[in-house]
Amino acid sequence: MPKYSIGIDEAGRGPLAGSVFVSAVACLEGLDIKGLLPGVADSKTLSADKRLLIYNQARFLEKKGVLKISRSFSRSRFIDQWGISLAIRSALERSLSRLDISPSNCHVLLDGSLKAPDCYQNQETIIKGDQLIPLISLASIVAKVSRDKQITRLAKKYPRYNLEIHKGYGTLNHRLLIKEFGPSPVHRRSFCRNI
To answer: Domain limits of the chain?
Structure first.
């Protein structure tokens, strides 16, 4: 039975608006991700164009059966009701289950403070994993691009908040707009209490 490596990262832990996304990317253990996708790095260090290019290349490799990619998200309402930690955990569990890989048949690599369910006994949480492990870097890119696409769609629905510019993060402009118009249905009210 083949053994898989799975990289996991999230995007959108801190914004005032929008969902939090968790991406899981799986490949056969030992696959050279940097060789397949030159330029893979922590999504925060890449331009939007570079992230999108790598994301599209990864999706092509997914169609070819080289990678398995899944992403899940928890909406702002869920975050307000249950908290950001549970929102991330819920999205992470859904992303892993969508890969349809047996927990006993994979090595899970997670960024930062993330943790997979206990049934994934072969798991490792790596501080700054999105900078150090290319498979986690790729997961960070998939999560970030997926979240940015959703935020861009929401920006059309709620144009007065300039979501397409700041992607929901708490910039001065964004906070002033929340103060002026009040929070929209996609704002995390629990994150906006002091505005």
So the answer is: 4-191
Backbone torsion region of residue 182, taken as left when φ is above 0, otherwise alpha when ψ lies between -120 and 50, otherwise beta: left
Q: What is the pLDDT of residue 117?
A: 97
Length of the chain measured in residues: 195
Sheet holding 123-126, edge to edge: 68-74, 20-28, 4-11, 106-111, 123-126
β-bridge mates for residue 68, sequence order: 26
pTM: 0.95
Looking only at the bridges linking them, the beta strands covering 68-74 and 20-28 are antiparallel
Q: Find tokens 């991700």 and name the residue.
A: 33
Confidence of residue 2 (pLDDT cuts 50, 70, 90): low
CB atoms within 10 A of CB 14: 12
DSSP of 46-114, one letter per residue?
S-HHHHHHHHHHHHHHHHTTS-EEEEEEE-HHHHHHH-HHHHHHHHHHHHHHHHT--GGGEEEEEETT-
CATH superfamily of 4-191: Ribonuclease H-like superfamily/Ribonuclease H (3.30.420.10)
